[in-house]
Amino acid sequence: MSTRIQDLFREDLIFFEDVLSKEELFKSIGKKLLQKNLVNQGYIDAITERESKYPTGLDLSVVKAGSSNVAIPHTEVNYCNWKGIVIARLKEEVIFHDMISPDKSIPVRYAFFILNNEKNSQTNILSYLMSFFTAGDKMSRLDSLETGKEIYEFVVS
């Protein structure tokens, strides 16, 4: 069964976070996802651990100068009870390491958490996100939106 991109987003899974570090972000989002039973107990530790080994920051300044950078944190399928994308917009940017040059630190404004409880479908989600991030003015448009509802309607349109 193929998943439609629209089915990967939920309006109640768009969060506005005021955190000082990616670890704080993972704890905050992880707790919310646990409350919704979308992940299991080991999720926060697993995503924190995976991020330290395989950074997910994406420097979008190479695509368009002044663009907000993003991170795409994710972890193994056994920690997830649902398949979809959780969006966190950060009040202040936090530092992630770049996925292409892991020694490089980049300030990130958005985290797109991939939750995936199916073994083989991560690549489709990643390629969708990559094309979203690099298409025209999508990131500037995202920056201009105020509410979770506006962000949700934009990403599913």
Automatic annotation (TrEMBL):
Highest taxon above the source species: Bacteria
Gene3D superfamilies in alphabetical order: Mannitol-specific EII, Chain A
PANTHER family reported in the protein's UniProt record: PHOSPHOTRANSFERASE SYSTEM MANNITOL_FRUCTOSE-SPECIFIC IIA DOMAIN CONTAINING PROTEIN, PTS SYSTEM FRUCTOSE-LIKE EIIA COMPONENT-RELATED
The PTS EIIA type-2 domain, residue ranges: 6-157
Protein name as catalogued: PTS glucitol transporter subunit III
Higher taxonomy: Bacteria, Bacillati, Bacillota, Bacilli, Bacillales
